[in-house]
Amino acid sequence: MTGPRPSALSPVLPCGTARALGRRRVLHTLGLGAVWLGAPGVSRAGSRGDRGRLRISMGQEESLCHLPVTVAWQLGYFRAEGLDVQLVEQADPKAAVASVVSGKAELASGPYLAVLKQQLQGQALQTMVLQGRAPKVAFGVSTRSLPGYRSPADLRGRRVGVAASGALSQALARACLAKGGLRASDVAWTGYTSMGEAAQALRQGELDALSHLDPAMTQLEQRGEVRVIADPRTPKGAHDVFGGPMPGTCVFGLPSYIEQQADVCQAVVFAVLRGLRWLQTAQPQDIIKTVPESQMMGDRALYLACFYKVRESYSPNGELGDAAMRTALKVAATLIDARGHDSQALLDRSHTNEFVLKARARLRA
Fold first, then answer.
1. Are residues 82 and 223 located together in one domain of the fold?
2. Which domain of life is it from (predicted)?
3. Which structural domain, as residue segments, surrounds residue 215?
């Protein structure tokens, strides 16, 4: 990383965005999207008829946030519903949202927090199945830069890396800083969309603390390179950090698309729900066989350790509850002005459990 360091009053500066976007463009140029062609385990048997093609946009494919969608694709659950699904990798959740709004993707896999932020900015989006009942993000300090760390107050004037400005990773870091009496302007922020580049920056001493996604954070933690100081990767941890249940990743789209293509959306939700149920009991050999090698960041053992560390965070039933939505809205209000909005009406527009309830009834049948 080159160039001047951000000042303590600077906004989050994006690092690694160009590289991630460049990779996505190459994938599209090759006509691959981010579809794993010829993946093992994909079966055409049991198809419920051809419902056509569908693009699901999502952030970095190696993130564990999107694993239920990946599993549904790899195991042929989408195909069994008559869906020809293309998974399209984006640089970050913001880009995934933009792809849905612009019509470049029909649906997206991304954080519920991003949906709420769009609602607060006047852009209607709606989620229809919850993948993560806790976010797969953690905040840690560098054991190299801060070996004697005692409290968040020690981060004053320090360099903090996050996944992106205004993302859940920054909200997590800000919540932790507040416990030490610090404001966002008391640290220097830098954004790293790439988990690998964020980890490298921390190793090279360019960061004093990092708030980012798994599997990167678990890898850094297991190697002794970070000391995690805020960990919402389990339902209990999320409650401790945010004061209530904090939802993670959902599948979402434009309300108009969801209404007009209800049958397609119902099929998507059923496939994702099957993926969630599979993850509840998956054994190590199942994960190794199903998850693409490219998503394991070069270390199967660490990836498995990370998966089992966060498995509890995957929703067992795909349903998003009122308490979780209210917690997420409180967090969103720390990142964007939420005044002047009817909170309950906004939350009601942001999600529907209708598809999940029907899918669960079918699974029980």
1. no
2. Bacteria
3. 137-232
